[in-house]
Automatic annotation (TrEMBL):
Record-level Gene Ontology MF annotations: dioxygenase activity
Lineage top rank: taxon: Bacteria
Entries under InterPro entries matching the protein: CDO_1 (IPR010300), RmlC-like_jellyroll (IPR014710), RmlC_Cupin_sf (IPR011051)
UniProt cross-references to Pfam families, sorted A to Z: CDO_I
UniProt keyword annotation of Cytoplasm present: no
Composition-biased stretches (Low complexity): 1-18
Organism, scientific name: Nocardioides renjunii
Region of interest (Disordered), ranges: 1-29
Lineage of the species this protein comes from: Bacteria, Bacillati, Actinomycetota, Actinomycetes, Propionibacteriales
Keywords recorded for this protein, A-Z: Dioxygenase, Iron, Metal-binding, Oxidoreductase
Protein name: Cysteine dioxygenase family protein
Amino acid sequence: MTATFPSPTQQRTSSTPTRPTPTVPTPASRQQVARAALAEHLGSHDPLRSVDLTVPERTWVHIGVRAGADLWLITWPPGSSTGWHDHGSAGGAFVVLQGSLTEYVWTGVVTASTLPSASVREFGGSHIHDVVNHGTSTAVSLHAYAPSLAAMTRYELVRGRLQVAGVEQRGEMW
């Protein structure tokens, strides 16, 4: 699709007032908001300072809203995993602060990427993935979601296909 925009030198010939068009965040702008929130938070905070690396289960803590995105700090003991899920309508980004994580992405087939410390990953709302700590020490990551994370769909891999296992609403499980 192609759009043509009037040049700044073209003048309006109609005297009819126009209403502003509501801004609908695009997936790319949601990812940009999330990435900016991560950078802003990390510029003024050391999230690792408050992390307990001895907890034997994956933990997640909501640390607030910054630059229009919901921020969550997640610790990943060895072997922990999110399971297959999406983020509803939220796009986002996360940065690995310590250790490394492997992200399995579903696009009809499974692909995997290992994300070492300082790696940043952006994703749209339709992104289905499973994140796993295959390492031998606890990993830590900081996640940002825009708009605010309200629901996640959980999936099960059955005979080479993903099937919806349920939908989690904010406040019920996290």
